[in-house]
């Protein structure tokens, strides 16, 4: 069976190397020193004090193809904010998801919501990119990193005042947790096959609660992928989840903000 995650990571290493060559780190930081003065927003706090929807800006996926090819972050992200999103996830991978760092930058200019840079982060350079372009939080994927790589990246993110959402798909990946993880996401989609099963969050809920009881500051629990209806979100809340990352359910409608508004109304 084709391993899509492996293909993505191979491509990502080439992409990051190209970015470093085109814009060295010191050059990037020098060009954007004013942006580094902005105090990032807390995505975790926003999820704790709201319905907890992380609305995603996502043009396509490897499994579903194009969802909304001409989507404009300057239009979609404000509609998410108006519709009641707690935060926005901006996919910045181009080859597999049709996104860009420009989408993140555009969203930051127009939105006051916490913004998550969602990408396959494998190098500290990408964390500096995220901070410069206006992200408040970053996604780290356990399946793409060793335990030590995850720790180093999470520590670097915190040094940049970025919150960290760690994504796991199985109980075995919980060994990637460390003191710098603010939010723990269960991906209902297998990143090797891209098969989606929402029951994965429910299966892991008890193990996540057991782990959380051992921690001084337990990460906030987030369910990711395959979510589409209010009933499932209500059940996940009962299971201990406080964040719900949703993209395809909104983007495929052609009017993401309106789709989010309807969902929020059903949750009220």
Query: What is the CATH homologous superfamily assignment?
Result: Aldolase class I
Order of helices and strands: HHHEEEHEHEHEHEEHEHEHH
Instruction: Report the CATH topology name.
Output: TIM Barrel
**Percent helix range:** 40-55%
Mean pLDDT: 91
> Alpha-carbon distance between the termini?
42 Å
GO molecular function, one term: phosphoribosylanthranilate isomerase activity
GO biological process, one term: L-tryptophan biosynthetic process
Keywords: Amino-acid biosynthesis, Aromatic amino acid biosynthesis, Decarboxylase, Lyase, Tryptophan biosynthesis
Catalytic activity: 1-(2-carboxyphenylamino)-1-deoxy-D-ribulose 5-phosphate + H(+) = (1S,2R)-1-C-(indol-3-yl)glycerol 3-phosphate + CO2 + H2O
Which descriptors would you attach to this protein?
about 270 residues; alpha/beta; TIM Barrel; about 45% helix; globular; aromatic amino acid biosynthesis; amino-acid biosynthesis; indole-3-glycerol-phosphate synthase activity
């Amino acid at each position: 069976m084709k391993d899509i995650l492996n293909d993505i990571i191979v491509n990502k290493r080439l992409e990051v190397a190209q970015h470093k060559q085109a814009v060295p780190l010191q050059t990037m930081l020098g060009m954007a020193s004013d942006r580094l003065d902005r105090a990032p927003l807390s995505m975790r706090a926003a999820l704790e004090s709201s319905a907890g929807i992380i609305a995603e800006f996502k043009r396509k996926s490897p499994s579903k193809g194009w969802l909304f090819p001409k989507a404009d972050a300057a239009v979609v992200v404000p509609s998410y904010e108006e519709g009641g999103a707690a935060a926005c996830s901006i996919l910045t991978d181009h080859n597999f998801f049709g996104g860009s760092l420009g989408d993140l930058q555009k969203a930051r200019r127009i939105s006051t919501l916490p913004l998550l840079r969602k990408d396959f982060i494998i190098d500290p350079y990408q964390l500096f990119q995220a901070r410069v372009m206006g992200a408040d939080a970053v996604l780290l994927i356990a399946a793409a990193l060793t335990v030590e790589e995850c720790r180093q990246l999470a520590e670097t993110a915190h040094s940049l005042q970025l919150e960290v959402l760690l994504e796991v798909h199985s109980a075995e990946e919980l060994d990637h947790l460390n003191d710098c993880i603010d939010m723990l996401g269960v991906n209902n989609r297998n990143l090797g096959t891209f098969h989606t099963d929402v029951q994965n969050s429910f299966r892991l809920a008890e193990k996540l609660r057991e782990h959380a009881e051992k921690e001084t500051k337990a990460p906030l629990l987030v369910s990711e992928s395959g979510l589409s209806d209010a009933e499932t979100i209500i059940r996940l809340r009962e299971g201990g989840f406080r964040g719900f990352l949703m993209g395809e359910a909104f983007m495929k409608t052609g009017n993401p903000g309106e789709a989010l508004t309807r969902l929020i109304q059903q949750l009220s």
